[in-house]
Every structure is written in C-alpha cells, then in structure tokens.
Design a protein that fits this description.
By secondary structure, the protein is an all-alpha fold. Helices cover 46% and strands 0% of the residues. It contains three helices and no strands. Helix 2 packs antiparallel against helix 3 (111-118). It is extended and about 105 Å long.
Length: 162
C-alpha cells in the first residue's frame, strides 16, 4: 500500500483556457485557408553536380591477352545461345509436325472428332481485348496552332509565425 499522494489539480483560469483554445482554432483555420502544396521529393531529381561530364570514369586499358580472352568468351557464348535457340526451334517444329500428323489421321478416321479438335476453345486461352473505339473524324475540327501554355507549378514553403 505504498502509493504516491494524490496531487492537487491546478486551477486553470477559464479565460486563459478559452483564449488558448481560440488561438488554436485560429491557427487551424489559417492552415486550412493556406492551401499547402506538396513539395517534390529531392531524391528523384539528379543534382547538377552529378551531371558533369568530367565525372565520368576513365576507360580502362586492357592487355592484349585479356581482350583476346574476352572476345573468345563472347564468341563461345553467342555460339551456345545460337545452339540453344536452334534446339528450341527444332523442338517446337517437331511438336507442330506431330500435331498436324495426328490431325490428319483423325480426319481420316473421324471427321466429326476432327471438327471438334480444330474448334477454338475460349477457356483454354482467355483473350479479352479493349482497344480504341474507331470513330469517324470530326468534320469541323480545328487543330490548335502550336500555342504553348506554361503550367509549371512553383512550389513555395509557407511558414506561419507563432
């Protein structure tokens, strides 16, 4: 039962309390009136000092052996990728040939099943297209003659005095 003694509540002058509330309401109204514009984030803007051409790294001089090694490696890589591409094309071609052969056999055995087999299945590959609506041109349309309206926003920081 060791508790601190209760503190007396300070007696606040109601006029001072009301004045503080009024000041706060006035500041809120002033803040609402001043339309605060968002300030752009500086991280997305590249500083001018980084755009200087003198800041570019110097070109590294490679030895003859290193440049030859890199060239040979690049040739080997391109040959590998070419062979990989050809193998993929051959696999697709053989699958398509087998499919065509199976469809021809099906045509000979059962024309009804062949007709069902070549019919498109919309649930297999769902395709929805939303594109431009083609409308005839407006006959009396006058294109603008190159006038330029500058709508660049100027950001200002509004500070309130306390």
């Amino acid at each position: 039962m060791r508790a601190e003694p209760l503190r007396k509540k300070k007696k606040v002058d109601p006029k001072k309390d009301q004045a503080a509330r009024d000041r706060l309401k006035k500041r809120i109204r002033r803040l609402e009136k001043a339309n605060q514009e968002l300030i752009p984030i500086e991280d997305f803007i590249t500083p001018v000092r980084f755009l200087d051409k003198a800041r570019q790294r110097p070109q590294v001089e490679l030895s003859f052996e290193e440049s030859e090694r890199r060239a040979l490696l690049l040739k080997k890589w391109s040959l590998y990728k070419q062979q990989e591409h050809e193998m993929e094309r051959n696999a697709i071609r053989s699958m398509l040939e087998a499919q065509q052969e199976a469809l021809q056999e099906l045509q000979l055995t059962s024309p009804e099943l062949h007709a069902e087999a070549i019919k498109r299945d919309p649930s297999l590959f769902p395709f929805e297209r939303e594109g431009p609506d083609y409308t005839p041109p407006v006959s009396n349309y006058q294109p603008p003659e190159g006038r330029y309206h500058d709508i660049t926003k100027v950001y200002t920081q509004v500070e309130f005095k306390r």
